Amino acid sequence: MPSLHASGQNDTSPARPVPPWRIRSGARWTLALALSLACVSFSLSAGAEQVQPTPAKTAQAQAQQTQDGQPGLAGAAGTVYTASDFFADLKAGRVTGLTLEGDGSANVNFQDARPQFVVLPPDAQTLSTLRASGVPLKVLGGGSPFDWLSSVLPLVLAVLILAVLWRTMRGAQGGGGAAQFGRSKATVHSEGQVKVSFADVAGADEAKADLVEVVDFLKHPERYHTLGARIPHGILLVGPPGSGKTLLARAVAGEAKVPYFSISGSDFVEMFVGVGAARVRDLFEQAKKQAPCIVFIDEIDAVGRKRGSGMNGGNDEREQTLNQLLVEMDGFQSQHDIIILAATNRPDVLDAALLRPGRFDRQVVVDAPDVRGRETILKIHARKKPLDPGVDLSMVARQTPGMVGADLENLLNEAALLAAKSGHKRITMRDVDEARDRVLMGPERRSMVINDADRRVTAYHEVGHALAAQLLPHADRVSKLTVVPRGRAAGYMMPLREDRVHYVRPVLEDMIAVALAGRAAEQVVFGAVTTGAQNDFQQATNIARRMVTTWGMSERLGKVSLASDESAYLGGGMQPAQYSQQTARVIDEEVSQLIARQYERVLTLVRENLPRLHVIVPELIRRETLMGAEFSVLLAGGELDELIIPEPPLSGTGGLAGA
Q1: Could you give the CA distance from residue 519 to residue 516 in angstroms, rounded to a whole number?
Q2: pTM for this prediction
Q3: Each residue's pLDDT tens digit, 619-648
Q4: What span, in angstroms and rounded, lies between the C-alpha atoms of 228 and 230?
Q5: Cα(16)–Cα(69) distance, rounded to whole angstroms?
């Protein structure tokens, strides 16, 4: 599988247009600010109006003073003290003091009377008269220091409203939010920006060979145009998750050194009808401007599913987007020099019109790598990791059948994390083995409390599996067995599986027998059974049922397929076929008989090798883990080297209490 390693990668994309939701959000904020300024202006104006004394209030105050027995000096009793009365008293010399405020209101003090309140004209002549009289004058500050805002805010408010209207009209003339909303979300990598090459891809030699001519076409299109050749418009990369489909597409762009458009199928789908189709049109318009180029659509099954399967029929947004994609791919001309690469792990759900020649002309399978491919992938991912000389990547590759590139990269990363946690300067083989077990089975649960009886049952159960795996002629040999709990398992036996293309009947029968050997060991040794064989029964039943219903290995049912896997691509699950109840009864009987025969077979095997079982189990309990070579030595009657258990330190933080 292609490796996911790429050094020195720092891809950037050009700035995208401002999304319409940001434009609308900016307009909303501008309107909110304008309304806030209007409210502040109104509040200040209202406050200023409240500060100004009114003649009615002045008359009311003077009337109150008159009722209290203090009439104005110049005015008659019962009259309002006016400005004329004040100037008369000032001229007569009866005023002894004056407190003047900025708005013209004044408090007048007299020699033989209570102070009076009066409103004077706030002009320069009044101030000159007061100064000429020689009366002590005290001037207080006027209104709020923010009174100037009441005159400035209306102007600011008007400018903001005009700016909002201008921006709205400009957006309407240029297409506005709808045009921005329909822009493609593809990430654009300019020419030479993609640094990944075919040297960073391993485990997919056939897929690389199919894509080499695409690279040559993008480099030398005139060579093909002269001969009237047409390069495939679209290439569909099919494979399980993590197998390196996206990496292959990037490697093609890196080798050809052409612009690279990358987008996911889900980026086309929106809740608004027509948006996805607009984004498809915009994507292909941009691609035509930068041809020759590569357009990569990841997870195309998100938009390319079979039409007619939705609830909304032809009005479904996804179907309209697919229709536009079909139209755009069908409208390519040979001079466009645009290659469409798409990736999916569900080709069975794609629309037939999308897969026809002229659109996606080829399907390139990127499957899980074989043992040589896994070793090459491990070497690529180990380039920047300091490995101990004792690390055997070929052995790791043999111990990881079925893993794809993403799994192998994760395995080495886990090994690096474990080495750093342990304080190692290099990654050792022990770190790699531990990382493999962690990835496959989960982390160790050494803190889990297991009594001696349960540990003994687990040891006999796992040794039973290992005994059958080592002695049956067609079974996979033992790689490792342990009684240390991992994940949800109390212990496990890991076989050293081989890469096989075809499975013959004896191999399948031995696989069933190995799965049932743990329960057989429990029954022979303890005379009772436990609940620990649940997963073993599931594996055995699954293999037996597929032998009967799918692979035609039942003599009673014949060479017929009784299960349909048309929708089960890449592990989607089997779909039940249409058959009678009588046939279903025969299937159940055949499966039960097949499992029963293999169980009797491993019962006999365990009874014949019971002394060996009693020798191996105590050693497994004492060591907790046995590798395949160690198990072979014990099974042959040999002895292992003495187990060295490191003693705990007697000083420092790990010392004994009280030492």
Answers
A1: 6
A2: 0.65
A3: 999 998 899 899 999 998 888 877 665 544
A4: 7
A5: 82
User: Does residue 328 or residue 603 have the better pLDDT?
Assistant: 603
Who wins on pLDDT, 121 or 618? 618
Could you report the per-residue pLDDT of 414-468, keeping only the tens digit for each? 999 999 998 999 999 999 998 998 888 888 887 777 888 889 999 999 999 999 9
Strand residue runs (E) in 265-361: 293-298, 338-344
Q: Is residue 19's pLDDT more than 60?
A: no
pLDDT of amino acid 66: 44
Q: What is the dihedral of CA 571, 576, 577, 579, to 10 degrees?
A: 150
435: its two tokens = 């990382």
**Block residue for tokens 């290992």:** 466
Q: How far, in Å, CA of 366 to CA of 360, rounded?
A: 16
Q: What is the mean pLDDT of residues 549-562?
A: 87
Residues 75, 78, 82, 87, Cα dihedral to 10° = 20
The closest alpha carbon to 325, from 358, 282, 287, 277, belongs to: 277
Instruction: List alpha helices for 527-648, DSSP H.
Output: 534-549, 581-608, 610-623, 628-635
User: Mind giving me the DSSP string for 466-533?
Assistant: HHHHHHSTTSPPEEEEE-S-BTTBS-EEEE-----S---HHHHHHHHHHHHHHHHHHHHHHSS--STT
Do 85 and 72 touch, CB atoms closer than 8 A? yes
H-helix or E-strand containing 319?
A: helix 317-330
State both tokens at 322.
């697919």
The secondary element (H helix, E strand) that includes residue 98 is strand 95-100
Where in the sequence numbering do the catalytic residues fall? Answer: 462
**3-state DSSP call for residue 609?**
coil
Tokens encoding 147 = 């009174």
| CB of 436 closer than 8 Å to CB of 399 | yes
Contact 359, 326 (CB under 8 A): yes
- pLDDT tens profile 279-335: 888 888 888 888 788 899 988 988 888 877 654 444 567 788 888 888 888 765 555
Spatial separation of the C-alpha atoms in residues 522 and 540, rounded to whole Å? 17
Q: Which residues pair with 314 in a beta bridge?
A: none
Contact by Cβ (8 Å): 344, 249: no
